[in-house]
Amino acid sequence: MVNALIAEPSTEARRAASHMLERLGFRVAGAASAEEALALIAATGPDLVLAEARLETADGRPLTEAVRAQAGGMDLCLFHVTSDGAAASIRRAIEAGADDYLVKPYDEALLRFKLAQARTRGRLDAGRPKLRVVQEGARIGASTGATSWRFGLYGKAV
């Protein structure tokens, strides 16, 4: 099962996002503050983090930047969540290190689509079989030592 963390100060918004992610097969944890979120990320190593834009660390850094600076923070998929869908806000989120963004209120179809995009880009591949290269070798001539190789990809990409 894939782990997700929702860093959101609003209990109602956290609950709504949790229900959606659970229906999509995620095991979900919640955090109401930036410090709680960073501690949970360090302890559990989630595959996906939904970070509310208003959450800032004690030193004033946005949570997105603090997550990326943390050990293992570059490996997880991070969605910036905001109620402000302005282009400037979205651009700042991406520049701060977010993989994608969601505008509240949450929409399950859009969340499903963005998760599929993250999987396609290789940012969220936990719980999915990885493509493997399989080689089959066959000797053509025992005296020449020549070998014929055939390569193939197996597995589901998305």
pLDDT averaged residue by residue: 83
Mass-distribution shape? globular
Helical percentage: 25-40%
In which order are the strands of the major sheet placed? 2-1-3-4-5
Number of helices: 5
What structural class do helix, strand and pairing data support? alpha/beta
How many β strands by DSSP? 7
Our Rg estimate from Cα atoms comes to 20 Å
Query: How would you sum up the major sheet?
Result: 5 strands, parallel
How large is the share of residues in beta strands? Answer: 25-35%
For the terminal residues, how far apart are their CA atoms? 16 Å
The arrangement of helices and strands along the chain is: EHEHEHEHEHEE
Catalogue the unreliable spans: 127-132
What does the model show?
There is one protein chain. The two termini are 16 Å apart. This protein has helices spanning 11-23, 34-44, 63-69, 87-96, 108-120, and strands at residues 2-7, 26-31, 48-52, 77-82, 100-103, 132-141, 146-154. The relative contact order is 0.14. A five-stranded parallel beta sheet has the order 2-1-3-4-5, with helices on both faces. The protein has a two-stranded antiparallel sheet with strand order 6-7. It has five helices and seven strands. It has 158 residues and is of the alpha/beta class.
Helix-strand layout with pairing:
Elements: E1 2-7, H1 11-23, E2 26-31, H2 34-44, E3 48-52, H3 63-69, E4 77-82, H4 87-96, E5 100-103, H5 108-120, E6 132-141, E7 146-154
Parallel strand pairs: 1-2, 1-3, 3-4, 4-5
Antiparallel strand pairs: 6-7
